[in-house]
Specification:
heterodimer; A: CBS-domain; Heat Shock Protein 90; 3-stranded antiparallel β-sheet; 21% strand; elongated; B: 111 residues; alpha/beta; Udp-n-acetylmuramoylalanyl-d-glutamate--2,6- Diaminopimelate Ligase, Chain: A, domain 1; 5-stranded mixed β-sheet; 5 helices; 37% helix
């Protein structure tokens, strides 16, 4: 298992509590490609290559799981020159396959991924019948599908799962580890931005470049203003400063964003009129954050608040 | 162009004394939407607006705007001027509207 995968687990780990009520049933892929025990390994190999999958469950005619053939197995079969063997003879047998129950929660699922470090886990019913398969990609997909209220912006969003994401390791977001902490506590919109201004001063002292500081300031200000307008003015700003990057986390326990994708659209705003008259609520807050940050993750759940995570990476040539 | 020279073309009142008067200004930006200013205004510019509440100072500081010109004869709370002084942002009042102010500044070469 590569380091990149380890980091994905760290990343998911950070969110497992937020999404703890998602179950395996909901996450799993249902249309799983399976093979019978009589199929030769060479066939499994072709399917894996063509469908770009890393494991094929072997099932009997009733759909009961007999075992699993993974890429590792195929490689070994090739090395040993037994690729023409039947899958049923060379698979990881059922008793050694780690599987999940459809009712297992996300927390349990992530623990399983961490403990066993396999790429995929089958989901079985009480009779051992294969219901589906879960890979890490499936977990993220399910989260994205179920929650309109998660938004991940990344320049390399498409291969989000295959890149190094060490910046997003859970332990770095412990409050005690923050280099900057500011409690937002004002309902007065005119006063919003105090936290961003304080952070700006700290960044200046630390010697970051002007354009970089501007980006961090814009993102932080917008997130702060959102807390004042939409979340009753109570929230927290945390910043984690490193030489080559700054991570800003803004959390509140307000009503949450109903539809983050919509909120991302420039010009869309749910701010009340008296706020708009003051020049706020132009529907550019989140779009501004997206432009300023190199990575923006917005997690929001109705009634449970919003969590905005912005990663700013010092760009080459940024003055 | 220095801020003090730019202001010669306007009928205006400066609330923040000498602050930024010697600063070089190249650009102007006219908008009343704070987020738009946040996202689009350049550093070292003057900002022309009718907004006059405390938060305009925060926006100016974060964007790197050197001067705010509050148009339309709007009144500004003393707290706002105080904050502007503290943060090193010039705060200027004028009775002219934003169109006139923008036009005048464009004419003298701001972009």
């Amino acid at each position: 298992m590569s380091n990149v995968d380890v980091e994905i687990i760290d990343y998911l780990n950070e969110y497992k509590k937020i999404f703890s009520f998602i179950t395996a049933e909901e996450i799993m892929k249902r249309d799983v490609i399976t093979l019978g025990p009589e199929a030769p390994l060479s066939e499994a190999r072709v399917i894996m290559r063509e469908k770009r999958i890393s494991g094929i469950p072997i099932v009997d005619k009733d759909g009961k799981l007999l075992g699993l053939v993974s890429t590792e197995r195929i490689i070994r079969a090739l090395e040993e020159g037994v690729i023409s063997k039947k899958a049923g003879e060379y698979m990881t047998p059922r008793e050694r396959v780690v599987y999940l129950d459809p009712k297992d929660t996300l927390e349990k699922i992530i623990e399983t991924f961490e403990k066993y470090r396999y790429g995929r886990f089958p989901v079985l019913d009480e009779n051992g019948k294969l219901l589906g398969l879960i890979t890490k990609q499936d977990i993220l997909k399910a989260i994205l599908r179920r929650f309109h209220s998660i938004y991940i912006h990344d320049k390399r969003r498409d291969d989000f799962l295959s890149r190094e994401i060490s910046l997003l390791k859970g332990e770095e977001f412990l409050e005690e580890g923050a280099s900057f902490r500011y409690e937002i506590n004002t309902r007065s919109i005119a006063e919003a931005g105090e936290g961003a201004a304080l952070l700006k001063r700290i960044l200046e002292k630390r010697g970051y470049t002007r354009s970089f500081i501007r980006r961090v300031s814009i993102g932080t200000y917008e997130a702060e203003v959102n807390v004042v307008i939409h979340a009753g003015g109570k929230g927290i700003i945390l910043a984690f400063l490193r030489e080559d990057s700054v991570v800003v986390l803004v959390k509140d326990s307000g009503p949450g964003i109903e539809d983050v994708d919509l909120a991302m659209k420039e010009g869309y705003s749910t701010a009340p009129d008296h706020i708009k008259e003051l020049g706020f609520g132009a529907g550019m807050g989140l779009p501004n954050m997206r432009r300023a940050a190199d990575r923006l993750i917005v997690l929001s759940q109705a009634g449970k608040g919003t969590r905005v995570e912005m990663v700013f990476i010092v760009r080459e040539g940024e003055e | 162009m220095k801020l003090k020279d730019i202001l010669k073309s306007l009928d205006c009142e400066v609330l923040t004394g000498d602050i930024n008067m010697e600063e070089e200004i190249k650009y102007g930006y006219t908008s009343d939407l704070l987020s738009e200013v946040m996202g689009k205004a350049r550093q070292d510019s003057v900002w022309i607006t009718v907004q006059s509440h405390l938060n305009i100072v925060a926006v100016a500081v974060l964007v790197g705007i050197k001067a705010i010109i509050v148009c339309g004869g709007k009144k500004v709370d003393s707290k706002v001027a105080e904050k502007a002084k503290q943060e090193g942002v010039a705060l200027i009042l004028t009775k002219d509207n934003a169109f006139i102010v923008s036009g005048k500044l464009y004419e003298i070469g701001l972009r």
